[in-house]
Amino acid sequence: VFLDTKRLVKGEDWQEGFLGGLMRTLVAVPLVSAGMLQPMLRLQGGDDDPRDNVLVELAFMQALIESGSGSLETVYPVMVGKPRPPDDPQYPYTGNFFQESGGVMDQLPDVISPPSNRTVADYLARRGVTGEVAALARGVRS
User: Fold this and answer.
1) Region 32-43: what's the mean pLDDT?
2) What angle do CA 81, 82, 84 make, to 5 degrees?
3) What is the dihedral of CA 107, 48, 8, 130, to 10 degrees?
4) Quick one: pLDDT at residue 6?
5) Tell me, what's the pLDDT at 29?
6) What is the pLDDT of residues 45-89, one digit of tens each?
7) Which residue of 66, 77, 92, 111 has the smallest Cβ count within 10 Å?
8) Rg over CA atoms, the chain
């Protein structure tokens, strides 16, 4: 099991630690929240977009599956709502992602930022994965 909070080493290159871990993982289970997706709303699809590390992680998972590189066979995203406060009767449960997200899924851009795309493509190329990876041509919502 690769759990980023346990396996990433302080001072280690983030890309090598996280993306390398994904290459050796059989099943990925990313936790998806509205707060995780919110920064992607500012992406416009231009070279001046910032690199979004969450988007890099998600696109990398899809690229691994499509290219057959690494060990990753499937991805099961888990949608989570906001955590309940300790005084809430439903604590420690989270809220409903779809009720609380404000429609963030419908607002995601149609394109992956070029800087995020380049990060995925460059890492794959350094690992010997060449050719077109369809995941890199898709939009954020797909």
Assistant:
1) 88
2) 120
3) 100
4) 55
5) 92
6) 888 999 998 888 888 998 888 888 888 999 999 999 988 899 999
7) 92
8) 16
Asked if residue 132 has pLDDT above 70, the reply is no
76 burial (CB, 10 Å; 0-12 / 13-18 / 19+) is exposed
Tokens at 1, concatenated: 């099991």
Amino acid identity for residue 85 in this structure:
P
Asked whether 140 and 109 are in contact (CB, 8 A), the reply is yes
How far apart are the C-alpha atoms of 32 and 34, rounded to whole Å?
A: 7
For the record, the structure tokens of 68 come out as 């057959």
Encoded amino acid at 28, one letter: A
At 121, list the tokens: 């493509």
Q: Where are the alpha helices (DSSP H) in the chain?
A: 4-7, 14-23, 34-37, 53-67, 97-100, 104-107, 114-126
From residue 31, how far is each of 3, 11, 71, 123 by CA, in Å?
12, 24, 20, 23
Q: How much is the average pLDDT of 93-121?
A: 86
